[in-house]
């Protein structure tokens, strides 16, 4: 569903360590970074640092958009469609944080991103049937 270059670009944008050339591992790292940045947004809201909040939300929104644009809607089927909907929702909620300065929205996004991150991480866990090997080419766009 994600081409390696887009996952790598998102990881690079966030400075997330790229764990090998595995796009799923990169997605886990990107989700970890977004969760961390949302915690930074909460602190910025609490401290009244509006510029920091805006800059961080803008960066998160760019990563969300990169992930959304990287979806392979032809081969990804329902999974790609569901991820598209989630990423669109995340982008709208990030905009809401900027309009309302509401840290509770950050908590919601952290929770939802953590769920999504757990799903990606499960694909890497051999105990759950996953592996460290990259996903089959059929699930990735060219």
Which terms summarize this structure?
single chain, 142 residues, mainly alpha, Four Helix Bundle (Hemerythrin (Met), subunit A), 5 helices, disordered N terminus, disordered C terminus
Identify the quaternary structure here: single chain
> Structural class, from helix and strand content?
mainly alpha
What do we call the CATH homologous superfamily? Flagellar protein FliS
Rounded to an integer in angstroms, the radius of gyration calculated over CA atoms is 15 Å
At CATH level 2, the architecture is: Up-down Bundle
Reading off the top of the CATH hierarchy, the class is best stated as Mainly Alpha
- Proportion of residues in β-strands: under 5%
How would you describe this structure to a colleague?
This protein is mainly alpha-helical and about 140 residues long. The chain has one domain: Flagellar protein FliS (Four Helix Bundle (Hemerythrin (Met), subunit A)). Helices cover about 75% and strands about 0% of the residues. It is built from five helices and no strands. The longest helix is centred in the middle third of the chain and has 28 residues, at about 75-100. The protein is globular, with a radius of gyration of 15 Å. The termini are close together.
């Amino acid at each position: 569903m994600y081409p390696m270059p887009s996952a790598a670009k998102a990881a690079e944008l966030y400075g997330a360590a790229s764990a090998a050339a595995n796009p799923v591992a990169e997605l886990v790292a990107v989700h970890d970074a977004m969760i961390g940045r949302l915690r930074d947004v909460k602190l910025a809201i609490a401290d009244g640092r509006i510029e920091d909040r805006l800059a961080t939300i803008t960066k998160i929104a760019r990563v969300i958009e990169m992930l959304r644009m990287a979806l392979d809607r032809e081969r990804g089927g329902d999974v790609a469609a569901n991820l598209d909907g989630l990423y669109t929702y995340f982008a709208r909620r990030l905009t809401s944080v900027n309009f309302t300065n509401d840290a509770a929205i950050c908590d919601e996004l952290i929770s939802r991103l953590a769920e999504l991150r757990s799903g990606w991480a499960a694909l890497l866990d051999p105990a759950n049937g996953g592996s460290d090997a990259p996903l089959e080419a059929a699930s990735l766009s060219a």
